[in-house]
Amino acid sequence: MTDRALSVVRAGALTTVQDRGRPGHAHLGVPRSGALDGPAAALANRLVGNGPDAAVLETTLDGCSLRPRSAVTVAVTGAPCRVTVDGRPAAWGAPVRVRAGAVLDVGPAVLGVRAYVAVSGGVAVEPVLGSRSTDLLSGLGPAPLTDGAVLPLGAPTGVDARVDVAPQAGPPSELVLRVSLGPRDDWFTAGAVRRFLSAVFRVSPASNRIGLRTTGPVLERARKEELPSEGMVLGSVQVPPAGTPVIFLADHPTTGGYPVIGVVHADDLPAAAQARPGTAVRFVSARARGCRGS
Q: Domain Carboxyltransferase, which positions (predicted)?
């Protein structure tokens, strides 16, 4: 058995393999998938010398623990968290050398939701439709990690970054999302559209990789009939019968039958990946300058 592998000591609440996703398959009913916080995943790969397409691990809230079978370089980015190697503190947001058999522990997120763990060589599970990403909606890609699982690693292709720590955006205290209205904003009352662009919503605990659900003011529909299913894109803000917006994230369905009041600017979606339940959410017109998740 190859020594280029990781043993999963503690899988955590939800840890999945992710890369840049599998775009271009919506006509087959296959979502894009991929890392929700793309910039954080890309930074982790750069820190360990991986190429941009290398697969990383995406943790959710409580991290994970891993034991490499050979010496590797790792980097943890995204949600700030405590990182240790065999119980000793190690750097977050910087390359860390982990010897064979040592236990890398990625602790619970202090802020934010999702941490990204890159390993030199990348996680080399078998790709499906050109991607190694786990898709929770369609079931494509590797299953979420379980205790005792073994993940193959690729051969290192580059040199880790020579930095003490890499700057990265912090998780948002308030999520401000630029949105372009439509295509179905005319299915809502004028008052509902104004409320959508002025009221404060909150991130719901029911949020996941498929969509960021919100709580808050109800958006009343002007049209009550059924809408035939139509194509959905990343960032679509769909409004189900309950009347509160749902922002479609990477594992979103490719079609849907509830009206889409607007579409969030793609550059603002990484911040949505790090917004904890209860975080304030505001939608602003994409025409407004200088408005983005922070």
A: 27-291
The string of DSSP codes covering 116-172 is EEEETT-B-PPPBTTB----TTT--SSPPP-TT-EEEBPPP-S-----S----PPPP
For 252, half-sphere exposure in the C-beta direction (CA atoms, 13 angstrom radius) is 22
Please state whether beta strands 280-285 and 174-181 pair in parallel, antiparallel, or not at all (unpaired). Answer: parallel
Confidence of residue 292 (pLDDT cuts 50, 70, 90): very low
- Residue 62 and residue 143: Cα distance in Å, rounded? 18
* Angle in degrees, CA 45, 47, 49, rounded to 5: 70
The whole-number pLDDT of residue 1 equals 52
29, 35, 102, 142, 212 from 233: Cα distances, Å: 12, 16, 42, 24, 14
Q: Is 3 helix (H, G, I), strand (E, B) or coil?
A: coil
Query: What does the pLDDT look like over 40-69, one tens digit per residue?
Result: 999 999 999 999 999 999 999 999 999 999
Report the 3 state secondary structure along 38-53: HHHHHHHHHHHCCCCC
Q: Hey, what are 136's tokens?
A: 């929770």
- Report residue 291's pLDDT band, with 50, 70 and 90 as the boundaries: very low
pTM equals 0.94
Contact 163, 95 (CB under 8 A): yes
